[in-house]
Design brief:
By secondary structure, the protein is of the alpha/beta class. It folds into two domains: 151 residues, 3-Layer(aba) Sandwich (Rossmann fold), CATH 3.40.50.300; 68 residues, no CATH class. It is 39% helix and 25% strand. The protein has nine helices and ten strands. A six-stranded mixed beta sheet has the order 6-7-8-3-9-10, with helices on both faces. Helix 3 runs parallel beside helix 5, helix 4 runs antiparallel to helix 5 and helix 8 crosses helix 9. The longest helix is centred in the C-terminal third of the chain and has 16 residues. Bound molecules: adenosine-5'-diphosphate and magnesium ion. The site of adenosine-5'-diphosphate has 12 residues, from strand 2 and helix 1.
Length: 241
């Protein structure tokens, strides 16, 4: 469960209002897609959810706990994959996965089994013993995702996870996230890809210039927009200033 209440964030001493009075709730069991044009405030929102940035005002709770007052309790149940996979280049893939598993306290048996499963699925098994600095951008993204998946946290927060993923890897990720949410987990992710959002999400939000422009199921968005068309059409109408 993720709850944002009246969250505001500006940069440059208030010159840029990146997130403006954002309130939304993502209950357990839900795949929640966060859409918006470039610069709409998606990454800023995500960084506040995971505790990298502090809101100027408002509050965020993860699994019922305030993420400023109980940051460790929130982080312990959350896995975050940023849009740019900037990670420890001198570690090998396996060393990186072990490091993440240590941080989250994943028992040895689970970490081995889950790492193997995801290294196979993402076609990284052959390079797992190589340093990450030899990896391509896509491979780095997949090793970070593997780290998140091997933790099996209650809450996944993924910033543009489909960008740069090959179709097979994207398919595996979507299946795993659907199963995770069917077991009562939560996924909050941002995306530019309308087809993914349309087919994959239980609910969606469209953010525009830092403000929530629309929120609900695809059906609800259609009703709000008075438009029975595609998500792309609703998105373009909602964000056309
Ligand atoms: N570190 C920063 N310093 C100043 N402005 C920033 C910073 N990060 C983001 N912004 C600005 O905040 C707004 C929202 O950015 P961002 O959250 O990255 O949007 P999105 O992820 O939707 O593309 C944009 O106007 C962007 O230029
Ligand atoms: Mg972004």
């Amino acid at each position: 469960m993720i709850e944002l209440k009246n969250v505001c964030k500006s940069y440059n001493k208030g010159a840029v209002r990146a997130v403006d009075d954002l309130t939304l709730t993502v209950p357990p069991g839900e795949i929640f897609g966060f859409l918006g044009p470039n610069g709409a405030g998606k990454t800023t929102t995500i960084k506040m959810i995971v505790g990298i940035l502090a809101p100027d005002s408002g509050a965020i709770a993860i699994a019922g706990r305030d993420n400023r007052r109980e940051p460790l309790a929130c982080k312990a149940v959350t896995a975050y994959v940023p849009d740019e996979p900037e990670i420890y280049e001198r570690l090998t893939g396996l060393e990186y996965l072990n490091f993440i598993a240590d941080v989250y306290g994943v028992p040895a048996r689970e970490r081995g089994e889950r790492s193997r499963r995801w290294l196979e699925a993402f076609e990284l098994a052959a390079v797992a013993a190589d340093p990450i600095q030899t990896y391509s951008h896509g491979m780095r993204q997949k090793i970070v995702l593997t780290g998140a998946l091997l933790v099996e946290p209650r809450v996944f927060v993924l910033d543009e996870p489909m960008t740069g993923l090959d179709p097979r890897s994207a398919h595996h990720l979507k299946e795993a996230m659907r199963a995770h949410c069917d077991r009562g987990g939560t996924l909050f992710f941002s995306t530019h890809v309308m087809e993914v959002a349309e087919k994959f999400c239980d609910r969606l939000a469209i953010i525009h210039k830092g403000r929530l422009a629309a929120c609900g199921t695809l059906e609800e968005l259609r009703r709000q927009a008075g438009d029975s068309g595609s998500l792309e059409k609703i998105f373009l109408e909602t964000t056309g200033s």
